Every structure is written in structure tokens, then in C-alpha cells.
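[Discussion] Sanity-checking designs against the backbone

I'm trying to build intuition for which residues belong where. Below is a C-alpha cell string of 148 positions. I'd appreciate it if someone posts a full sequence so I can compare it with mine line by line.
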């Protein structure tokens, strides 16, 4: 079956939840692919709040951003995968890392997370090309760096 790629948007949030709540995705559901978007420890949890719940709310708040914080893969109407991506400067932990810091001043994008439920693994979801381009992301480096 062909793979269709769509950007995360508020109306697709239930599809992202379905992926993260699926069998085999328990590690990803702990951070919701937000680990590299943050820097340092976060100890300001409200009473009764969990890190996992806070992590779930963070990508939801980013869902309608342009560009989106990630892409969903579908087989028909069934969500089968997620990839978290963005401009390198969106991932604070990368810039703070002595191992993963930028090697030059080029504007690049980073892919930091793939999530594929176990029932869809070993079927080439992460390698498959989309049936037709469903998303075309454009980044204007001048616009992106205007506030810097």
C-alpha cells in the first residue's frame, strides 16, 4: 500500500496519539519526541502532573506551526509512522551537545526521532518513498534568521 505523508496539524493530533499509544511505542510516549527540543532538566511540574503528560502537551502546542514539528505517515487512513524534524536551531540539545553541535554556519534540518508502531515495523515504513509528495517544506533562511 502506498505511503501518504502529511504534516502534523491540530486536526491530525488524534493520529499522532494513536501512534504514540500503540504497542511498541512506550519509550517514545515518555518524551513524545520533545527531548532534543528542550535544554536542561525541567523540575517545574505542577502537582499531579507527570513528565510524560507535559511532554504530550508540548508537541500539541506546536501542531499548527509553519513549518510543522513533524510528519505523519499513512497507509490509507491508518497512521503508521511519525518523524520529528525541523530546523537545527529548533533542537536546543543539539546546539548544547559537544558531540552533535553544528560544524559550520549552514542552515540545516535535523531528523531526531522516528516512531513506528510494532505492527507496522519491518515493512519499510521509515524507508518508503511517499506515493506522491504530500508535503513540501520550504524554509527561507533569511526569514528564519531575521530575529537573530
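Best answer:
Here's mine. Compare freely.
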Amino acid at each position: 500500500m502506498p505511503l501518504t505523508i502529511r504534516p502534523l496539524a491540530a486536526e491530525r493530533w488524534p493520529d499522532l496519539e494513536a501512534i504514540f499509544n500503540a504497542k511498541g511505542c512506550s519509550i517514545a510516549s515518555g518524551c513524545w519526541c520533545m527531548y532534543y527540543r528542550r535544554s536542561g532538566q525541567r523540575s517545574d511540574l505542577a502537582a499531579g502532573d507527570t513528565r510524560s503528560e507535559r511532554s504530550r502537551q508540548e508537541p500539541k502546542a506546536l501542531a499548527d506551526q509553519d513549518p510543522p514539528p513533524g510528519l505523519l505517515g499513512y497507509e490509507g487512513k491508518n497512521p503508521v509512522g511519525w518523524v520529528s524534524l525541523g530546523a537545527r536551531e529548533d533542537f536546543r540539545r543539539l546546539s548544547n551537545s559537544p558531540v552533535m553541535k553544528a560544524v559550520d554556519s549552514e542552515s540545516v534540518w535535523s531528523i531526531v526521532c522516528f516512531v513506528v508502531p510494532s505492527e507496522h515495523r519491518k515493512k519499510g515504513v521509515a524507508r518508503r518513498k511517499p506515493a506522491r509528495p504530500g508535503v513540501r517544506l520550504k524554509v527561507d533562511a533569511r526569514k528564519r534568521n531575521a530575529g537573530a
